[in-house]
Design a protein that fits this description.
Chain lengths: 495, 262
C-alpha cells in the first residue's frame, strides 16, 4: 500500500516536472499572442501632411493610390439648412458639409487624421461627430462636441481598413441622424483598393415628416413616427430624385463601377439591389471579406458595403431598396444610366411581341381598326377658350410617367420593333382621334408608324376623360409633336 | 417708516433703470420634477419669483452699454466674451435698425449676468427657467401636451428665429413671452449639469438625462425639447456667444415690495 502511494507521489512529481516546461512555454506563447494582437498599423510611419479632399455625394475623392501615410487635415462645417426633399416638400436638414449624406472622407490605413469640426454661427444646436473608423472615446463624439459659432479639433490614427459610417451623436441622437447627419469615411488598405472605372457615393436614409409622403410645404420632423419606425420617406442621398433624371449616375458598357454604399438609418436596414445587375463583388459590411455574385446585399443602419460590378448592357439600371414599397412609394430609387453598344450575347431583346389571344376570346374580338374608321368621320372641335392647357400638360406629365413611360419611354422614343414611338409620330400627329382611341380603347394588331411596322398590343387605359386629354396634351406638346390641344369634351365625343 | 421709504425709492429706481419700465411677471412657485431628475423622482421646489416678460432686446442692451461702457464691443475683456460678441452690431457699436426690437444675441454669460445685476436683478436658475417654460397659454405644466411640445421642437429646428421681434407671440400662462421660439436663453447655472460631449454613455453624471434619450417613455416629446436645451447649455463656456442665445432677467419675490407697490 505504502509503496504504491509513494510511487504515485513520485509519478505526480514526475508529471509536474515534465509538464513544467510546457506550462512555461504556454505562458511564453500567450505573451507572444498578446503582442501580436496589438494592431501593427499603429506603427505605420506618417510622412508629410496634406489637406483631405472632401466631396458631396454622389462623388468621391480621388483614390489614395500608392501615397504614404500622412497627417491628413479634415475640415468639416456643420450647416442647418432648408432644402427640398421632394417636389414642393421642404425640410430642415442638419448636414455635415452642406449635403446629405455628408462629405465623403477618403483616407488610407496609418494616416493620422486631424479633424476640425466647425459649427456654423447661425446654427441653433450643438453637434459632434462619431466616426466608426475611430478607435477611441465615442468615435470622437466627446472631443468634437461643439456649440454654434465654435470649432474643435481632435485627431485619430486609422488602424482598420474599411468603409465606415460617421454620424452626429449629440442628444437627441436619433433626431440628429434623422435630420441627415451621417456620411461615409473610407480607410483604404495598404496599396489602395484595386482601380475601377467609376466610383460613386450613395447612402440611404429614412425621414419622418409631420405631413404624409408628398404633402407640400415645409415639413417638421415627426418624433412619434420616428419612434414607431414608420418613415414617410426612404431615400438615397437625402431626397427623392437625388439619383434620377438629370442626377442619374452614368457608366459606359464594359466599365467597372464601384459604389460606396452606406446606410445612415436612423431605423431601417437596407436590402440594396440594382435591377438588371449582379454585384460581382461585395465587400461585406464594408470590411475585408469579399462575397461574389450577389443579387441583394443587406446593409444595416449605421453600416456600409462596397459593391463592384462590370456593366455589360446599355440600360437604365435601377438602384432600389428591395424592401420594394420603399422604392416605389417612399423614394428609395436611383438610376445608373449605362450607355454603349448592345451585346446580344449577354442580353438579347428577343422577338417582337405578337398578340396573344386565347382561343376562347377570338370570337368576341372586334378588330380595333374598324373603330378608328368610325372615329375619323368628324374633325374634333377647337379647344374652348377657358380650357387651361398648361395645367392639363403638367397633369399629363405625371399620368404619362405612371401609365405610358414603361413602354413608350421617357422621351417618347418607344422601343424599336416593339413599342412605337410617340415622338414625331405620323400616327398621332394630325390624327388626334386615333390617339384618343388608342388611349381609351387600347390598340391591338399591325400598325405603321414612321414607316416601321409594329404588331403589338396596348391595353385600354382606365383614365377619366380629363386625364386622357391631359396625357395627350403632354405628348402633343413635347418631342417635336405638333402641339394639338385635346379637351375632355373631344375625348368624350370620340369614345 | 424711513426704512420703507428708502425701499420704495430703491424699488422705483431699479424698475425704471434706463428710463424705461421693464415689465416683469410673477411666477407662482411650486414643486416639479425637472427632466434630469425624472428617473429618481427628485422634486424641486421653486420659490415665487418675478421674470422679465420678454427677452432683453438689442435696444435695451445698447442702453445698458451706454451706462456701462466696459461691456461695449470695443472695451469688453476677452476673458468675458469671445470674438463673436455683439457680432450683429455695426463696427462702431450701433444696433442695426432691423434688430432694435429683436432679442439681443451674441452675448456671453458674463455680459448677461452683469446686465441683470446692474438692474438689481439676476439670471434665472435652470430650474426656475424650466419651470416657467413648461407653461403653455393656459396650463402651468404643458409638458405632456404633445401639440405644445411639437411646437417647441419645430421652433428649435427653424433657422434664424433670432431676427423676429420680441412680444409678438401669444404669452404663456404667466403672461411671459417668447420663452420658446426666438432664442435660447442664458441661465445662471447653465453648466451645473455636467453633460459631456458624449450623449450616450451611461456611467457619466448625466446618466439620467441621456440614458433616457434612448428610452421611450410617455413624456419623451417633452424630453426631446428639454434635451436640446440641456445639450446647448452644456456645449457652452461662459465667454461664448451665439446667434441663437439671448437672455432675460428675474428677481426674487419680496412680499414687502409687493405691498409697497400696491
Amino acid at each position: 500500500m505504502k509503496t504504491h502511494r509513494k510511487t504515485q507521489t513520485r509519478f505526480t512529481y514526475l508529471f509536474f516536472a515534465l509538464l513544467f516546461p510546457f506550462l512555461f512555454a504556454a505562458c511564453q506563447q500567450q505573451e507572444e499572442v498578446v503582442k501580436s494582437n496589438r494592431n501593427k498599423n499603429e506603427d505605420i510611419k506618417v510622412v508629410g501632411t496634406m489637406k483631405a479632399e472632401l466631396t458631396a455625394p454622389p462623388h468621391v475623392p480621388k483614390p489614395i493610390g500608392k501615397r504614404t501615410a500622412k497627417r491628413l487635415f479634415v475640415d468639416m462645417e456643420i450647416i442647418e439648412e432648408v432644402a427640398e426633399m421632394d417636389n414642393g416638400v421642404e425640410y430642415v436638414y442638419w448636414t455635415f458639409g452642406g449635403s446629405v449624406p455628408g462629405s465623403f472622407i477618403r483616407t488610407r490605413v496609418g494616416d493620422i487624421v486631424e479633424f476640425t469640426l466647425k459649427n456654423h454661427p447661425d446654427n441653433k444646436l450643438p453637434h459632434n461627430i462619431d466616426l466608426h473608423a475611430v478607435t477611441g472615446q465615442g468615435g470622437g463624439a466627446e472631443a468634437s462636441f461643439v456649440a454654434p459659432g465654435q470649432q474643435k479639433t481632435f485627431s485619430f490614427k486609422t488602424l482598420n481598413p474599411g468603409l465606415y459610417v460617421y454620424h452626429c451623436a449629440t442628444a437627441p441622437v436619433g433626431m440628429h441622424i434623422a435630420n441627415g447627419m451621417y456620411g461615409l469615411i473610407l480607410v483604404e488598405p495598404l496599396g489602395g483598393l484595386p482601380p475601377v472605372d467609376k466610383e460613386y457615393y450613395v447612402m440611404q436614409g429614412d425621414f419622418y415628416t409631420k405631413g404624409k409622403h408628398g404633402e407640400k410645404g415645409l415639413q417638421d420632423f415627426d418624433l412619434q413616427k420616428a419612434v414607431d419606425e414608420n418613415p414617410d420617406y426612404v431615400v438615397f442621398n437625402g431626397k427623392v430624385g437625388a439619383l434620377t433624371g438629370e442626377n442619374a449616375l452614368t457608366a459606359q458598357v464594359g466599365e467597372t463601377v464601384r459604389i460606396f454604399f452606406g446606410n445612415g438609418g436612423p431605423n431601417l436596414a437596407s436590402s440594396f439591389h440594382v435591377i438588371g445587375e449582379i454585384f460581382d463583388k461585395v465587400y461585406l459590411e464594408g470590411g475585408k471579406s469579399i462575397n461574389e455574385n450577389v443579387q441583394t446585399t443587406l446593409v444595416p443602419a449605421g453600416g456600409s458595403a462596397m459593391l463592384e460590378f462590370t456593366v455589360e448592357s446599355p440600360d437604365n439600371l435601377v438602384l432600389v431598396d428591395h424592401s420594394i414599397f420603399r422604392a416605389f412609394n417612399k423614394g428609395a430609387l436611383g438610376i445608373l444610366s449605362v450607355s454603349g453598344e448592345e451585346n446580344h450575347v449577354v442580353y438579347d431583346e428577343g422577338t417582337e411581341a405578337i398578340p396573344y389571344i386565347p382561343q376562347s376570346e377570338i370570337a368576341e374580338n372586334t378588330p380595333p381598326q374598324e373603330k378608328e374608321v368610325e372615329a375619323k368621320v368628324e374633325e374634333p372641335a377647337p379647344a374652348p377658350a377657358d380650357f387651361d392647357l398648361q395645367n392639363s400638360i403638367t397633369k399629363g406629365k405625371k399620368i404619362y410617367s405612371q401609365n405610358c413611360l414603361a413602354c413608350h419611354q421617357a422621351e417618347g422614343q418607344g422601343i424599336p420593333k416593339t413599342f412605337p414611338p410617340l415622338a414625331g409620330s405620323d400616327y398621332i400627329n394630325g390624327h388626334p382621334e386615333k390617339a384618343i382611341n388608342a388611349v381609351v380603347n387600347g390598340l391591338t394588331g399591325e400598325i405603321k408608324v414612321n414607316g416601321e411596322t409594329y404588331n403589338s398590343a396596348m391595353p385600354a387605359q382606365r383614365l377619366s376623360d380629363e386625364d386622357v386629354a391631359a396625357v395627350l396634351n403632354f405628348v402633343y406638346s413635347n418631342w417635336g409633336n405638333n402641339g394639338t390641344t385635346i379637351t375632355p369634351e373631344q375625348v368624350k365625343n370620340n369614345k | 417708516m424711513l426704512r420703507y421709504f428708502t425701499i420704495a425709492i430703491f424699488f422705483l429706481f431699479h424698475l425704471n433703470v434706463n428710463g424705461q419700465e421693464i415689465e416683469m411677471r410673477k411666477i407662482e412657485g411650486g414643486v416639479y420634477v425637472p427632466l434630469y431628475g425624472s428617473q429618481e423622482e427628485v422634486q424641486v421646489e421653486i420659490e415665487p419669483f418675478y421674470m422679465d416678460a420678454k427677452p432683453v432686446t438689442h435696444q435695451e442692451f445698447a442702453e445698458f452699454i451706454k451706462q456701462y461702457p466696459q461691456w461695449s464691443k470695443e472695451n469688453v475683456k476677452a476673458l468675458f466674451a469671445d470674438a463673436s460678441y455683439l457680432t450683429k452690431w455695426t463696427a462702431d457699436g450701433e444696433v442695426p435698425k432691423h434688430l432694435i426690437n429683436s432679442p439681443v444675441n451674441n452675448v456671453s454669460w458674463y455680459a448677461a449676468k452683469a446686465y441683470c445685476e446692474c438692474q438689481d436683478k439676476r439670471l434665472p436658475t435652470t430650474d426656475e427657467w424650466e419651470f416657467a417654460a413648461m407653461a403653455s397659454e393656459n396650463s402651468i405644466d404643458a409638458r405632456e401636451d404633445s401639440l405644445f411640445n411639437q411646437k417647441i421642437v419645430s421652433g428649435y429646428e427653424k433657422p434664424k428665429t433670432y431676427l423676429k421681434e420680441v412680444g409678438q407671440s401669444t404669452p404663456n400662462y404667466y403672461g411671459v413671452y417668447d420663452l420658446h421660439g426666438l432664442v435660447w436663453e442664458w441661465v445662471y447655472d447653465f453648466n451645473s449639469i455636467m453633460i459631456t460631449g458624449e450623449s450616450r454613455s451611461n456611467n457619466n453624471t448625466d446618466a439620467n438625462l441621456f440614458c433616457a434619450g434612448g428610452a421611450v417613455s410617455a413624456n419623451d416629446l417633452m424630453n426631446y425639447a428639454a434635451f436640446m436645451r440641456y445639450a446647448i447649455r452644456s456645449s457652452l463656456k461662459a465667454r461664448n456667444t451665439m446667434s441663437n442665445m439671448g437672455f432675460r432677467c428675474v428677481k426674487d419675490y419680496d412680499k414687502n415690495e409687493l405691498e409697497l407697490n400696491q
